[in-house]
């Protein structure tokens, strides 16, 4: 604290004396202020001196004293002319500077000092003559006010000017004979008045300086803010290259220029693959440094081109088609050289706009789409957007643009796949799976739209629609007196980010009066590695409300045991891949047997998916796996189809749940 106070005191003293160092902006501010003040000051001086010259000349003529012109010239005219000349020089230079016709600041400073010195000299000279005649020393005081108060000086400079000029003037007066008393020296009244004027003028000088300094600092701060805002409006804050706002604006202009050769224009989209792992390994600081390096490598690789950071570790370039792939190949080698223990690879998608296209955003999207198709393909780093990709891209755009209408018009349907008890062979559950029955493309399987909706962060719309449909099916079944079994719903990890999915589930359960133990939630094992805290809270809330939580696709990841240790589940769903080598691989049965035994030990229900043969089902029953699911029983179909098969005796719904239906 003492150190802080000492530093604050030192800073205050330096500022009070005007000894602190000014920034270039503040120095320029003071200079500009003095140049503007010099215009007004010099105008006043010019007018006064012209008036004095005219007045003196008229007086000489009227009183027929022209024979004394030489005496008056030496005594008065020369001083008026010198000050008038200085005023004119100051006025001309200051006006030219304000109008932007000269930038020689050193010359302006020199003229300002010379003008100030001449003004003070004039004040001393004229007031000495007035004092001898018994008149007031107003000219000296006026010139002091002009110089020290109209212009802005650092306090120590103002003090020096005032003190030196007052000392010189009053020293001269002290040797002169006072006209009114005949005594040599200064009267007490003159000394007191002189000191009072000196002090008042000095205080005004200090006040004027501090006021100007405060305004300069305020303006500098605003200038920095405006400069920052202007910079970030066109510049990426991290890498220093252009941002997408600037890119889109300039790219659109280029595409619309009649001189642009679109046959030789290409949009490139770059993605540093595995950058997320690099961040996790070395931290965000190192990751940011890598992004900066990569950004400037791309700028260097494509000179005279439009380069921008798209987002995260993605960059876009608008450049000439010729040589773009070769430059991308060199860039890829440079990025590879930056890696340490984490393998980095630069991927590049390219799109060449057609003659009538002028939308940079669409061009970037297509280049990005091309880039995404070669991710995880380590033998390919460059891909052009072509007709094959065009069809896929159009489908992607269609899905993103049509999801809201599809939900509103009932094109999203729930298909159910039964979950069967290995003990009774009866249906004890259903998994709800989405199907998009599109009027244009027909039936769209989940693989055609799930990942796209996740990429564009619209997956929660689909999942909320699924919740609504399942709850509605339950209510309709109950009102018809039909049996209904618990249904499991698949939630995306993004559901927990994009909305309150637990609240949406519970709201519809209440709306349709669905018992909470009739709605189960499946969470994929891989999801749990991304957002531990968020999902932990959501799962706890689900179980507190009375919903069962399933672990889906158990065994497809590398951290299955940790997941069981860190989270609480009601049902463990064994991944279908375990049954893929059922007949050939003797380890398969042993592994499944041990997993099922583990579920018994930790009080979970076991369910194996992907059951396709009677032999597989009988094996699962023999090791006491509780439930099974697969094409052996049924592929996913509408609920009405399941009921038809049940009516025909092919399937049977368990009656154990009928008593709890309300």
From TrEMBL:
Segments traversing the membrane: 37-56, 77-99, 105-124, 159-176, 188-209
Domain EAL span(s) in chain numbering: 396-650
Entry annotated with the keyword Membrane: yes
Domain of life according to the entry: Bacteria
Pfam families: EAL, GGDEF
GO MF annotation terms: cyclic-guanylate-specific phosphodiesterase activity
Keywords: Membrane, Transmembrane, Transmembrane helix
SUPFAM superfamilies to which the protein is assigned, alphabetical: EAL domain-like, Nucleotide cyclase
Domain GGDEF: 263-387
Name of the protein in question: Diguanylate cyclase (GGDEF) domain-containing protein
Organism, as annotated: Ruminococcus albus
């Amino acid at each position: 604290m003492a150190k802080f106070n000492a530093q604050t005191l030192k800073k205050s003293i330096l500022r009070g004396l005007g000894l602190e160092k000014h920034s270039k902006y503040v120095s320029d501010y003071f200079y500009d202020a003095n140049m503007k003040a010099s215009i007004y000051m010099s105008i006043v001086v010019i007018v006064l001196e012209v008036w004095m010259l005219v007045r003196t000349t008229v007086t000489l003529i009227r009183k027929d004293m022209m024979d004394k012109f030489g005496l008056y010239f030496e005594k008065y005219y020369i001083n008026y002319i010198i000050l008038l000349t200085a005023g004119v020089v100051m006025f001309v230079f200051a006006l030219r500077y304000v109008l932007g016709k000269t930038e020689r600041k050193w010359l302006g400073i020199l003229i300002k000092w010379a003008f100030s010195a001449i003004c003070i000299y004039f004040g001393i000279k004229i007031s000495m003559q007035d004092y001898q005649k018994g008149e007031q020393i107003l000219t000296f005081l006026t010139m002091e006010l002009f110089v020290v108060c109209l212009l802005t000086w650092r306090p120590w400079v103002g003090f020096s000017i005032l003190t030196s000029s007052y000392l010189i003037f009053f020293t001269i007066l002290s040797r002169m004979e006072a006209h009114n008393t005949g005594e040599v020296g200064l009267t007490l009244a003159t000394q007191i008045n002189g000191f009072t004027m000196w002090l008042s003028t000095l205080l005004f000088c200090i006040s004027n300086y501090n006021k100007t300094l405060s305004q300069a600092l305020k303006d500098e701060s605003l200038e920095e803010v405006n400069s920052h805002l202007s910079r970030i409006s066109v510049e990426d804050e991290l890498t220093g290259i252009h941002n997408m706002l600037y890119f889109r604006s300039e790219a659109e202009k280029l595409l619309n220029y009649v001189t642009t050769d679109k046959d030789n224009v290409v949009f490139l989209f770059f993605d540093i693959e595995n950058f997320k792992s690099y961040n996790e390994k070395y931290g965000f600081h190192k990751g940011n440094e890598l992004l900066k390096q990569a950004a400037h490598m791309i700028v260097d690789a494509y000179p005279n081109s439009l380069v921008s950071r798209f987002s995260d570790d993605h960059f876009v370039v608008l450049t000439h088609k010729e040589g773009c792939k070769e430059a991308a190949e060199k860039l890829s080698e440079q990025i590879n050289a930056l890696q340490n223990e984490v393998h980095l690879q630069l991927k590049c998608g390219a799109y060449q706009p057609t003659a009538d296209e002028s939308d940079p955003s669409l061009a970037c999207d297509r280049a990005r789409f091309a880039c995404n198709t070669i991710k995880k393909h380590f033998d390919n780093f460059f891909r052009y957007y072509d007709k094959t990709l065009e069809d896929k891209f159009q489908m992607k755009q269609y899905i993103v643009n049509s999801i809201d209408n599809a939900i509103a018009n009932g094109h999203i349907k729930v298909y159910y796949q039964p979950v069967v008890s290995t003990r009774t062979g009866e249906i004890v559950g259903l998994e709800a799976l989405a199907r998009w029955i599109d009027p244009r493309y027909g039936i769209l399987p989940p693989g055609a739209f799930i990942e796209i909706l996740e990429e564009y962060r619209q997956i929660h719309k689909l999942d909320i629609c699924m919740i609504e449909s399942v709850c509605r099916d339950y209510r309709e079944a109950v009102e018809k007196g039909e049996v209904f079994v618990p249904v499991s719903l698949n939630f995306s990890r993004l559901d927990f980010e994009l909305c309150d999915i637990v609240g949406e589930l519970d709201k519809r359960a209440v709306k349709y009066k669905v018992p909470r133990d009739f709605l189960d939630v499946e969470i994929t094992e891989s999801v749990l590695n991304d957002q531990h805290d968020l999902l932990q809270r959501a799962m706890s809330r689900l179980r507190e409300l009375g919903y069962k939580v399933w672990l889906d696709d158990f065994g497809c990841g590398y951290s299955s045991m940790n997941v069981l240790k860190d989270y609480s589940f009601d049902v463990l769903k064994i991944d279908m891949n375990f049954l893929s080598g059922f007949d050939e691989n003797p380890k398969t049965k042993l592994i499944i047997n041990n997993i099922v035994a583990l579920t018994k030990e930790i009080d979970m229900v076991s369910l194996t998916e992907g059951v396709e043969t009677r032999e597989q089902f009988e094996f699962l029953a023999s090791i006491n796996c509780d439930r099974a699911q697969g094409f052996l029983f049924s592929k996913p179909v509408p609920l009405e189809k399941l009921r038809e098969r049940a009516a025909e005796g092919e399937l049977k719904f368990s009656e154990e749940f009928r008593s709890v239906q309300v």
